[in-house]
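> call design_seq(struct)
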């Protein structure tokens, strides 16, 4: 099958992918960097589904996080911090940090300075993506 043409085909393929994922997981065939019949078929079917979603369902692709936001998240993860801890470290409330992390609020100069001084984030990265 080269292209899905209707919702029933899409739903059938989606069900098939879910079964393949469950079976591959049970057999230990879905580990990172594995290339086998399961991963190849899942990739192929997922591509068919994604194409159908783009063309027929108007599902927008996920936006990629900026490298700056990814760096902040990585800092929180490596320091075993929750967002509320990060907000406290950076001197803002959790709601403001949430808005910054989701892209709904711009990074101010004072916040950018705190990212650099408190978290050690490279100033060039901040300048490029803030």
């Amino acid at each position: 099958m080269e292209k899905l043409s209707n919702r029933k085909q899409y739903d059938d393929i989606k069900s098939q992918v879910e079964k393949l994922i469950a079976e591959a997981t049970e057999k230990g065939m879905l580990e990172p960097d594995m290339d086998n019949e399961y991963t190849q078929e899942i990739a192929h079917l997922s591509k068919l589904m994604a194409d159908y979603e783009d063309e027929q369902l108007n599902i927008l692709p996920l936006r990629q996080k900026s490298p700056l936001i990814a760096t902040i998240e990585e800092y929180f993860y490596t320091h075993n911090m929750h967002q509320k801890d990060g907000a406290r470290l950076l001197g803002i409330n959790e709601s403001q940090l949430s808005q910054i992390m989701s892209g709904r609020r711009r990074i101010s100069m004072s916040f950018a300075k705190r990212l650099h001084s408190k978290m050690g984030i490279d100033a060039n990265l901040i300048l490029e993506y803030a």
